[in-house]
Design a protein that fits this description.
- The chain folds into two domains: 16-199, Creatinase/prolidase N-terminal domain (Creatine Amidinohydrolase, Chain A, domain 1); 203-437, Alpha-Beta Complex (Creatine Amidinohydrolase), CATH 3.90.230.10.
- Helix content is 35%, strand content 17%.
- The protein is built from 13 helices and 17 strands.
- A hairpin with a 4-residue loop joins strand 16 (410-414) and strand 17 (419-421).
- The radius of gyration is 25 Å and the shape is globular.
C-alpha cells in the first residue's frame, strides 16, 4: 500500500470518527443509516398523512440536581429514529399518503467555549446528515419558524392529516407545542404510534439485546462463582456491575436487585445493605444496558452453594412453571394467556409444598413484560405475540414468614414457530446453579 493510499484512509477514518453524539465511541457503535431510514419510513406509514414532532432529551445538571450522574441518556423515540444523542434537538417527520415526504432535524449550534468542558458535540451540519441519513438539517434556534410552516402552513399535511406530539404536562411547557396541542387541529399522542413500531424488533435491535443479555448472563455466572455466606449484598452487586462495564455496557438497565434472606421476598428491593447468612437464598434481578437496549435476567442462588431440600422443591416448582410458559410461547398467543397457563400449572403441581393451599397464592406479580429500550418496554399487553417481539417470563414464589423468595426470569424472543430463550447462558436448573457455584 502506498504512502498516499494510507494517508487517504487515515483522513477518511478521521472524518468519520469525529467525536459526535451518535454512539460513536460506544461499544455498540452507531445504528446503520439504512436501518434508521426504514424506521422513519415505517413511522410515516403509520401516520398516513400528517406531521410527527419528537424532541430529544434534556441535559441534566450534574452539579445541581444530579451530582452523581454525568451521563446523558437520549429520549428513546428520538434515538430510535435518528441514532443520535443530541440534547436540545428536534425531529420532524412529514408524511403524505403513508409515504415519507420529508424528515427534518434541528440541532443546537456548536459552542466552542463550552466544548472545552464537555468535549466536541454534534452541530447542524453535514456530519448529522451522514450519521442519520437526513438531508434537511437546521440550527435548533430556527425550529419555531419551520415548525410553524410545517404545522400551520397552507400546504402543510397537518391541514389534511394529524399532528403527532407528546401530549403531556411537560410538553405544554413549550410555547409552540402548547399552541399545537390546544389548537383546533387533529392533534394526537405520538406514544401509541411509537410503541407499535418499537414492539417488533429489527435486526439491529435484536443484536443489541443479545449482547446486553449475554453480558448479564456473564455477570450472573461471575456472581455465582464468588458468592459465599458472610458476603454483603453490595459485594455481589459490585461484581455484577463491574462485569457490565468490563464487557461494554454503559449503564444498568435498572437499579440492580440483590436481595438475600427476607429481602428475597421484596420484589424491588435495591438497597443491597444486608450481610448474607448461612442458609440464605439470594435473588439477583439484574440487567445490563448495551447500546440503549436493556436485559432483565433473574436468578436465585443458595448462598452456601447448595439448595436445602425445602428450597429445592420451591425452586423446581418455579422453574417448571416458567418452562410451561416458555413451551407455550408462539405467534398468536397473548401474554395474558401465558399468565393463565403459568398460574394453572403452579396451582396444579403445588402438592403440599405450600401447605393446604396451592403455591400460586405466593405468586404475587405478573408473569411478563415487554423488553427493549426500556426494561419495561412500550407496547399493548393484549397484542398477540409475533416474530421479533421480546418479553420476559418470570414466575416467582415469595414466603416472607420463611424468609424464602424464588424468582427465575428469562428474556424470550418470539420466532416464526415458537420462542428462543436469549438468556439461556445464565445457569438456570438446580444442577447448573450448584455447579456454577462450585
Amino acid at each position: 500500500m502506498s504512502r498516499w493510499s494510507r494517508a487517504l484512509i487515515l483522513v477518511s477514518c478521521c472524518l468519520f470518527a469525529v467525536p459526535l453524539s451518535a454512539q460513536v465511541g460506544s461499544p455498540a457503535g452507531p445504528v446503520a443509516v439504512p436501518t434508521l431510514v426504514a424506521r422513519r419510513e415505517a413511522a410515516a406509514k403509520r401516520i398516513g398523512t400528517g406531521v410527527m414532532i419528537i424532541r430529544s432529551a434534556e441535559e441534566r445538571s450534574i452539579e445541581g440536581d444530579y451530582p452523581q450522574d454525568s451521563d446523558y441518556r437520549e429520549n428513546n423515540d428520538f434515538f430510535y429514529l435518528t441514532g443520535l444523542e443530541a440534547p436540545g434537538g428536534w425531529l420532524v417527520i412529514t408524511a403524505r399518503d403513508s409515504a415519507l415526504a420529508e424528515a427534518q432535524l434541528f440541532i443546537p449550534a456548536r459552542q466552542p467555549s463550552s466544548e472545552r468542558w464537555t468535549g466536541p458535540k454534534l452541530g447542524p451540519d453535514t456530519a448529522a446528515t451522514r450519521i442519520t441519513g437526513i438531508a434537511s438539517v437546521h440550527p435548533a434556534d430556527s425550529v419555531q419558524t419551520l415548525l410553524q410552516r410545517a404545522t400551520f402552513g397552507m400546504n402543510s399535511p397537518a391541514r389534511t392529516g394529524a399532528i403527532y406530539v407528546l401530549k403531556t404536562e411537560e410538553a405544554l411547557e413549550d410555547p409552540f407545542l402548547k399552541r399545537v396541542i390546544l389548537s383546533s387541529m387533529d392533534v394526537r399522542d405520538v406514544r401509541p404510534v411509537m410503541a407499535t413500531l418499537r414492539l417488533v424488533k429489527d435486526a439491529d435491535e435484536i443484536a443489541r439485546l443479545r449482547k446486553a443479555i449475554d453480558i448479564t448472563a456473564e455477570a450472573h455466572r461471575e456472581a455465582m462463582k464468588i458468592a459465599a455466606a458472610g458476603m454483603w449484598e453490595y459485594e455481589l452487586e459490585a461484581v455484577i456491575e463491574y462485569t457490565f462495564r468490563r464487557r461494554g455496557a454503559e449503564r444498568v438497565g435498572f437499579p440492580s436487585i440483590v436481595g438475600s434472606g427476607v429481602n428475597s421476598t421484596t420484589l424491588h428491593y435495591d438497597k443491597s445493605r444486608r450481610r448474607t447468612e448461612e442458609g440464605d437464598l439470594v435473588v439477583m434481578d439484574i440487567g445490563a444496558e448495551y447500546g440503549y437496549y436493556s436485559a432483565d435476567v433473574t436468578r436465585t442462588i443458595p448462598i452456601t452453594g447448595r439448595f436445602t431440600p425445602r428450597q429445592r422443591r420451591i425452586y423446581e416448582l418455579v422453574l417448571a412453571t416458567q418452562q410451561a410458559a416458555i413451551d407455550s410461547t408462539r405467534p398468536g398467543v397473548t401474554i395474558g394467556q401465558l399468565q393463565q397457563i403459568a398460574q394453572n400449572y403452579m396451582r396444579a403441581n403445588s402438592g403440599d409444598i405450600c401447605g393446604a393451599e396451592p403455591c400460586n397464592r405466593y405468586f404475587i406479580h405478573g408473569l411478563s413484560h415487554w423488553l427493549g429500550m426500556d426494561v419495561h418496554d412500550v407496547g399493548a399487553y393484549n397484542t398477540p405475540l409475533g416474530p421479533g417481539m421480546v418479553f420476559t417470563i418470570e414466575p416467582g414464589i415469595y414466603i416472607p414468614e420463611e424468609k424464602l423468595g424464588v424468582r427465575i426470569e428469562d428474556d424470550i424472543l418470539v420466532t416464526a414457530n415458537g420462542a428462543e430463550n436469549l438468556s439461556a447462558g445464565a445457569p438456570r436448573t438446580v444442577a447448573e446453579v450448584e455447579r456454577a457455584m462450585r
